[in-house]
Amino acid sequence: MQGVGLKKVEGIQRVTLRRPRGHLYVVAKPEVFKSSVSDCYVIFGEVKSEDMSAFAQAQAAQLAQAQKQAGEDTAASTNEPGFNINDFTSSKKVDDDEEEDDAPIDESGVDQKDIDLVMEQVSCSRRKAVKALKDNNGDLINAIMSVS
């Protein structure tokens, strides 16, 4: 490799190439060579494909299981009832449902296509989409960000 101007780079344990949609190509224990005239690298080794979205879901499941286990252990060791975060979030959902039943939606000054787009992008109720659009003066991006 030195004949073509490549010098071996020592100390690299893993090379990761990131692709769109969360796909990774990983080379464990690679042989890496760097060009002496430019910032180009040549990598040799066994390439394995990893899906980061599946990896992230597995990590989230493990974290949730660990938190659940820790919460049960804490509640059991102190003989005090532990609180459940779902108690707080479920009451918020009930409040939102009650709010939707109160009055008809005033859609004046808001474009129907914008309402439909916000509802589609964020999976929210029509009332929330209209409120977000009015709060953000019809700006779609800010409305979507405020609801999500």
TrEMBL record:
Domain NAC-A/B: 1-56
Alphabetized Pfam families for the sequence: NAC (PF01849), UBA_HYPK (PF19026)
Composition bias type Polar residues, residue spans: 75-89
Protein source organism: Malassezia globosa (strain ATCC MYA-4612 / CBS 7966) (Dandruff-associated fungus)
Protein name: Nascent polypeptide-associated complex subunit alpha
InterPro entries per record: EGD2/NACA0like (IPR016641), NAC-like_UBA (IPR044034), NAC_A/B_dom_sf (IPR038187), Nas_poly-pep-assoc_cplx_dom (IPR002715)
Bias-annotated ranges (Acidic residues): 96-109
Entry-linked Gene3D superfamilies: DNA helicase RuvA subunit, C-terminal domain, Nascent polypeptide-associated complex domain
